[in-house]
Amino acid sequence: MDLGSRLTVVVGSGGVGKTTLAAALGLRSAAAGFDTLVMTFDPSRRLKDALGIGDAEGNQEVVVAGTEGRLHASLLDARATFDGLVARYAEDDEARRRIANNPYYHHLAGHLGGILEYMAVERLFEVASSGRYARIILDTPPTTQAIDFLEAPTRIVDFLDSGALKIALAPWFDPNGELRATSRLGFVGRGLERFLDRVVGMQLLRDMSEFFRAFGPLFDGFRGRASETETLLASAETRFVLVTGAGEDRIPDTLFFARKLDEAGYQLGSVVVNRVHPDVGSGVAESEMSEGQRLFQWLGDRHRRGLATLRGLLKPELPLLAMPLAGDELTDLESLDGLGRELEQRWLAALRHPTS
Which residues of the chain have pLDDT under 50? Predict the structure, then answer.
């Protein structure tokens, strides 16, 4: 693969082997002499063990032992990333305490939709700006979440520049914890406050107001880091690898994601069709095949039709790599390295013959 890219982002649907391919790319990058970090969201337990990060927590960058070159691996921990932001960028100890003790923060940091994607943006910025690694391989979650991740920097900037944030930062409550707007209305105001308490929960509103006011001084930093990460993702030094499954049913999703990347101005370096069934019936009469062989031959024919159709729909110059179905699950460094070598060879062959 193109190991000259400072950042390689592996994207695609779920269950197509993105994380395994990202790990294989990391091994080849390290073997080529680049200090490399593989960042991933949720690898299988066996892959964690193969990379030596089975018990790693909190965004630790773990040395992958027994590899050529210098390779580290890290699991994205959204809560640890959020806590780290507060520890680094809060104005003082009092501001850190106010945020850390806020109930809404505990909900937001661990559970709110979109936080995983935003924390991935923050974590990517942190690692890329540190200069510790010459190459970063970023594994992403499945298609929908990956699109959320790619769009997160823009959404962050839009939110921070919106009127909604100004409203959230307004002093809604007085020192006694009562809504300023209703406290001036006497009996009517108290009735309105009781109504809001039943519908929304006044304590939740207080927690949210306190959170946004305590977090306010950090927002400018969020805007700057989000903008820089957006620039990095669209940089000429960044390449995206789109991984998909074999078969014609996968084509719409693959084309959708390729179009999304193109519209966003990102550089799609290659499309990898993973786990393509082999041609087991070559030179064998169908009457001589077992039932299992006939099934595999049918799957192989289906996958080859899908590859041919996809090749005709993609840009002719875009490398399309067909990776064969592995006989066993890749759960050790030796098999991962073998996958990486084959991926490199097929990429070079696709560059020489892009439309074959």
Answer: 181-189, 192, 195, 199
Give me 211's structure tokens: 């959170």
Instruction: Give alpha helix (H) positions in the chain.
Output: 18-31, 45-51, 78-89, 93-100, 103-111, 115-130, 143-160, 163-168, 180-183, 186-199, 202-215, 219-233, 251-263, 291-313, 333-352
Position 224 scores a pLDDT of 84
Contact 10, 292 (CB under 8 A): no
* CB within 8 Å of 214: residues ≥ 6 apart: 95, 98, 99, 102
Alpha-carbon distance values, 219 to 19, 87, 119, 160, 232 (Å): 32, 14, 14, 7, 20
Confidence at residue 307, expressed as pLDDT on a 0 to 100 scale: 92
336's CB contacts (< 8 A; 6+ apart) are 20, 23, 24, 27, 50, 330
pLDDT in tens, 195-249: 455 545 556 666 766 777 777 777 778 778 888 888 999 999 999 999 999 888 8
Taking only the tens place, the pLDDT of each residue in 84-101 is 888 888 878 888 888 888
SS3 335: helix
Pick one of 3.40.50.300, 3.90.79.10, 3.30.450.40, 1.10.240.10 as the CATH number of 239-356.
Answer: 3.40.50.300
Q: In this predicted structure, what is the pLDDT of residue 267?
A: 94
**Cα-based distances in Å from 272 to 21, 193, 341:** 9, 57, 14
- Enumerate the domain spans of the chain: 239-356
Q: Is the dihedral of CA 52, 54, 55, 58 positive or negative?
A: positive
Torsion of CA 307, 308, 312, 318, to 10 degrees: 50
- CA distances 276 to 206, 323, 331, Å, are 55, 6, 19
Output the six-digit token pair for 172. Answer: 């809604």
Q: How far apart are CA 96 and CA 89, in angstroms?
A: 9
User: In the Cβ-directed half-sphere of 317, how many Cα atoms lie within 13 Å?
Assistant: 3
